[in-house]
Amino acid sequence: MDPVVVLVLCLSCWLLLSLWKQSSGKGKLPPGPTPLPFIGNILQLDVKDISKSLSNLSKAYGPVFTLYFGMKPTVVLHGYEAVKEALVDLGEDFSARGNFPIGEKANRGHGIIFTSGSTWKKMRRFSLMTLRNLGMGKTDLESRVQEEASHLVEELRKTNGLPCDPTFVLGCASCNVICSIIFQTHFDYTDQALIGILERLNENLRILSSPWIQVYNSFPALIEYLPGGHHTILQNSDFIKNYILEKIKEHQESLDFNNPRDFIDYFLMKMGQEKYNKQFEFTFENLMNTAVDLFGAGTETTSTTLRYGLLLLLKHPDVEAKVQDEIERVIGRHQSPCMQDRSRMPYTNAVLHEIQRYIDLVPNNLPHAVTRDIKFRNYVIPKGTTVLTSLTSVLHDSQEFPNPEIFDPAHFLDDGGNFKKSDYFMPFSAGKRICVGEGLARMELFLFMTNILQKFSLKSLVDLKDIDTTPIASGFGHVPPPYQLCFIPM
Prior knowledge:
The chain is α+β, with helices and mostly antiparallel strands. The protein is built from 17 helices and 11 strands. The protein is globular. One of its GO terms (cellular component) is endoplasmic reticulum membrane.
């Protein structure tokens, strides 16, 4: 037989088999656009802005629909009701980690973020308990953040009111807070180790939010052998892991069981207590990867939110002025801000919430998966199916937040100017896998921002109309455009 004919027959059989697998695997999955063999629905998505594509598809298929990223089905939940029903009302059933190949390859089944089941539960429970032991939600951790805020202010003073890019200095501040928790270290802002770590964290966020990684996560087996940013992410992750591994070795030599100093000490003590447990989860691999998870999440998300927040305040000087008036009235010029002040500062609190709502930092959340076959709104989602929850659809809900595409602190204020809570405020996700460090992040955002605006006014280098707040990347995260500003001492 002609080799060409054989090839065509083989390809035809392969395509038919692919179609059969896709259709037979659907069961009672929600409806969605018809996938193509092998590539799924990738051609129907804008890989530069997946969130926008999901919003458009929801108009055709409703709040619950199915997409294929490659050969694997993914159920998409769009809108507050569907997201809340899954993550909060049925939280345990939707608590597994969904398919995220680049993260799985980096963490190799260890840590908190990219694990499920027993490992995830034990690492999360231990991390929450240890963070509380180390002061999360208490005054001793608040004093650490206040001290770091004073270092941040001093670094900003050194700019002498000249133009600067705030990316690095904000990264240093948030990184130092998490470093003090994990391995009791405070870096000088010129420390080369700190600079190297921050550069790699920033680079990883940019790559994770690029179209390339969206494609990689759909076709990891194929893309793995091609050159590209996925290799850079793994190299950067290994660099940070090696740094933390050195810190672990130092802690092993100086560990005092009667006086644990930080997260690593508590974990090493737990390892000693659990070493005879047959289902031993407290390993060096889990320690290293859990520390990396806390390190990365605790640094990059907070610093990016602060960076984006300053850009929004440059764009809206009237908002900046109102926050500074409230700081002057409640705190004054010379007293350091503290968390007790927040309850007396409704406008500032509303501004911080609106920054997080508006920037929508992680638009599609990290993927979840169902822990069992589950009936959801008359559909059947098989165990292990990946579920994407659109946080954009919640944070930008037009019924809850009129004109959601506009930055407006009034979204979190009532008619009397009092702060107004909203169940739709989910920048940290919701339910069983809500961000472990939510309390710390809220504290940092309030104390860092109030300290900056207490001491400086923000000056733009361009006209207000020329300030663009559109993210330069909209994949895994929304990355703000680069900019410079002047911190003018008050």
